[in-house]
Each structure stands twice: as C-alpha cells, then as structure tokens.
Amino acid sequence: MAGERERRGVQIMVVPEGEGSRRTWQLSSRRARFLRMAAWVSGVGLVFVLASWGYLFSEAMDARELRVRVAELERDVARVEELNGRLVEMEEQYEQLRQMFMTGAGEDTPPQLWLPPTGGRAAAPVESAEEAALPTTWPLTERGFVTRSLLAGNAGEHSGLDVAVPTDSYVRAAGAGVVAEVREDPVYGHFLRVDHENGYVTLYAHANEILVSEGDAVLRGEVVALSGSTGQSTAPHLHFEILREGAPVDPLTLVTQP
Fold first, then answer.
1. Cα angle value 185/190/192 (rounded, 5°)
2. Local confidence band at 115 (pLDDT 50, 70, 90 cut-offs)
3. Of 7, 91, 228, 250, whose CA is between 20 and 30 Å from 162?
4. What's the Rg (C-alpha) of the chain?
5. Pairing between β-strand 170-172 and β-strand 161-164 as defined by DSSP bridges
6. Which neighbouring-strand residues pair with 200?
7. Which residues partner with 10 through β-bridges?
8. Confidence check: pLDDT of 99 > 80
9. Greater confidence, 96 or 234?
10. 69 in Cβ contact with 62 (< 8 Å)
C-alpha cells in the first residue's frame, strides 16, 4: 500500500471559468516532494532576505542619525573654539586694563601717598609754601587711564581731565590749599574744590565719597576723596580740573601722569 501511495504522486487540475477545456498535470511523488522542499526553502530564504533588509534599514537609519549627531558635534566644537578665542581676547583686554590701572612705580618704590594720622597732622615733605600750593602732583595714587582731555574754546566744552580708575581709588590733593567747597551736583556728582595760592583752584568730581569738609586745610598728596561714578558718569573715573583766575588750564601742563 505504501508503494502504491508513492506511485500515485500528485495530480493538479485547472478548470477554467465558463467554456474551456480543463488542464491536468500529474506530478510524481518525488517531484511533489521536490516542489514542497523548494517552496519551503524559498519561504525561508524570503524570510531571511526580509529580516536582512530590515536589519540593514535599521543600520542605515542609525548611521544617518550618527551622521546628523556628528555634524551637530562639529558645530558645537566650532562654537567652543570661537568662544575660546573670544575668551583669550577678553583676557588680553583685561590684562591691558589692569596694566593701565596699575601705578607706574615698582614694588620697591614708595606709593607717594601721604595720610594724616588721627591724632594730628604729621610734617609734610619740606618745601616752601608757594611750592607746596602749586597743583603739580598727579591727583591719584595710581596711573589710571586718561579717557578725555581738556577741550577748551567754546563754552560748554570739556574743561578738565577724565582719568579712568577703579571705584574707591584714592584721590589726593594736587597741591596744598583749603577746601573751599564740598557739594553734590547733577553733572559732577559728589565733588570738592580746593583753593590754592597764586589764583589756582583744583576740582575733583564724580567721587564715591568725600573725606574732607569745607574749611579744611589739606597738604600736597593728602587723600581727600575716593573715586566713583556719581553724577553724569558712565563708568568709574576722576574728573580733574585746574583753573587759574577762573580760566581752565590743561592739567597735563602742570601734572605728569606716572
């Protein structure tokens, strides 16, 4: 019986719809097994191909995402390098400003700052009264940076010297004299005026704090105020004026920047 089943094989019949002759194919059992095996192999191969395509598609998407991420990282690196360049420039500018605000004297050189003791006034450097009253001393204990000079001529032009210094830098009298005025002004902010001999008057404006009072006698180099940015000012600085008989004098003709 088993041999008979094997000999029977498989018969395939095609019956067309409507008129037409039927078609019949007879397959031996061996061919039927071969076709079944071929169909099974083809199905497994198709599944393998689809799985491979799915894996390759996934890898391609991952690769695309990685390329996008690498491009973003490259842009970030470029931005970091740009920021680093800007930081280096800012550090160089800061160092330049720091050098500007440092005194010209070395570490072993006295700061040429004279402060009166609380118990009374010490003796100032020996010089005649006329020499001491002449406003020839730089009005700061540090070099600072001159941002604006005297602009004489038309009324309302700049009548003194602007020196950029940090807030609370020592402001000192350019010469011996008497404090004639201590006031607050919308333009000058906190300021003081010192009368000297020979018709000279000095003015110190935009102070953060005034350390003397009207009527006080001050010596050359005595600290009279702390610098600031009060009044009509955009940054900490000292506005320094020298007048003789009421007319502005270019301070750089009398005082020398350290």
1. 100
2. low
3. 91
4. 48
5. unpaired
6. 244
7. 27
8. no
9. 234
10. no
Q: How far apart are the C-alpha atoms of 214 and 224, rounded to whole Å?
A: 11
Q: Are 194 and 201 in contact (CB under 8 A)?
A: yes
pLDDT tens-digit readout, 82-91 = 887 777 777 7
Query: Residue 135 and residue 69: Cα distance in Å, rounded?
Result: 68
pLDDT tens digits, 58-95:
777 777 787 778 788 888 888 888 887 777 777 777 66
H-type alpha helices, the chain: 2-8, 29-101, 129-133
- Is the separation of the CB atoms in 248 and 202 below 8 Å? no
Q: Is 144 exposed, middle or buried (0-12, 13-18, 19+ CB in 10 A)?
A: buried
What's the number of CA atoms in the CB half-sphere (13 Å) around residue 174? 29
Tokens 């450097």 -> residue: 125
Q: What is the DSSP string of 8-24?
A: H-EEEEE--SSS---EE
Which amino acid appears at position 18 of this protein? G
Is pLDDT of 111 > 60?
no
Min mean pLDDT across 21-35, 94-108, 217-231 is at: 94-108
Strand partners for 25: 12
Q: For residue 101, what are the contacts with CB-CB under 8 A and spacing of at least 6?
A: 142, 143, 144, 145, 164, 165, 166
pTM of the model as a whole: 0.53
Rounded distance between C-alpha atoms, residue 54 and residue 3, angstroms = 46
Calculate mean pLDDT across residues 47-51: 73
d(CA 1, CA 184): 128
